[in-house]
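Thread: quick sanity check before group meeting

JM: Hey all, I'm pulling together slides for Thursday and realized we never actually wrote out the predicted structure for the chain we discussed last week. Dropping the sequence here so it's in one place. If anyone has concerns about the input, flag it before I start.
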Amino acid sequence: MIRTDVFIKKTRIDAPVEEVFKWHSRQGALERLSPPWDPVRVIERKGGINKGARVVLEMKAGPFPFRWTAEHTDYEENRLFRDSQVRGPFSHWVHTHSFEPDGPEGSFFEDRIDYALPFYPFGKLLGGEFVEAKLVRIFKYRHATAIEDIALHHSKKDIKRPMKILMTGASGLLGSALIPFFTTGGHIVNTLVRRDPVLEKGEAFWDPEKKSLDPSVFDEIDAVIHLAGEHIGEGRWTDEKKRRIIESRTKGTVLIAETMSRLSSPPPVLICASAIGYYGNRENKILAEDDPPGDDFISKVCSEWEKSAQAAVGKGIRTAFMRIGIALSPAGGALSRLLLPFRAGLGAKIASGAQFMSWVGIDDVIGVFFHVLSNNKIAGPVNVVSPNPVTNLEFTKTLGQVLSRPAIFSVPAAAINLAFGEMGREILLSSTRVIPEKLLESGYRFRNPDLSGALSHLLGK
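JM (edit): ok, ran it. Output follows.
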């Protein structure tokens, strides 16, 4: 007989039990609940959460990948669903998700894990405390995410029916986070891709270079979210790289805006990605949406990017330009690149460390997009940043503290210039101190407004 341990995490949420159960049952819940510091990739999925459904996941134990196969064994709507490990690292693993009402507008949801490590009792002696601590971290994150996501969806009671959203750049860091957020809220996301589309997944082909875009993709679409563009922070900026950076943004934006402008009944809102690079290197000046652009290359990129949507603006389509700051996620971007050296105790400030970093947690980027999408009074530029920008020195110290590692080194400005040239000067050495004036005025509530709290949540600390 296998001796099992039990882990339980129970939380109350201010939402009806039916709504909480539906959120957990929809496509995207697994992705939203997977901690970004320990990501899970879905290899194969058959069914949802009903009895007999099965999923194959790729996970990691340190640097080593492994596959986990789970099968759903029980399902009672609004009460519970249960899945069991078919193949994986445990001798026994049964995960029961339970739900119970707490009045008409409240409920409890509980995760119960009955598990056993292999090679009992040696497995428990060697890894029991580690597994328990990992479960605590994971389910603290999962419950916090579920509470915030469900509360945000629940607060938009004026959205009377599921929205149908068309998105570009869906495979990037932001698109990969936005899609499961929308689908767990009951909305539908179709995507534009530059490869052979999978029609069953709501994909459609487009090619900005050849100005190829079928206008019918906009039929019955409630909102367009345009994220596509070549990565700006990798490699030196040669003349060819600069051309690709600009054209990857302007050509796609022009194609979408002009196609929408020719429609007799276009989608009512277009949300375009942009960046706080619009403002350029402005040292300690506090910058809001009505400040003019800088004179750096990135400023030119962002300015031309936003101007490329003029056809949609002229048509009267509500158009928002999301000037996104340094989006923090261990799944990609700046934070993911910093984790290895910081965890090794090699964290370092850049140059003097006095330059301001206008950052934002990935969950707040998601929240801001939904806020702008559902608030028809917001248009034009929107600064997507935390209300608390920090200097590079503050960022370095805070990340070191969250990881419990020293961060005492410094990278000279000359080394940045030598290694990266213009890209290093504009991305790593420039100072951009931005505030989210429109968001604050429109009542957006930040999930993680301070850096320490944001990093602790994202890194499971």
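AS: nice. The chain has two domains: 5-155, 164-458. The mean pLDDT is 92.
JM: adding both to the slides.
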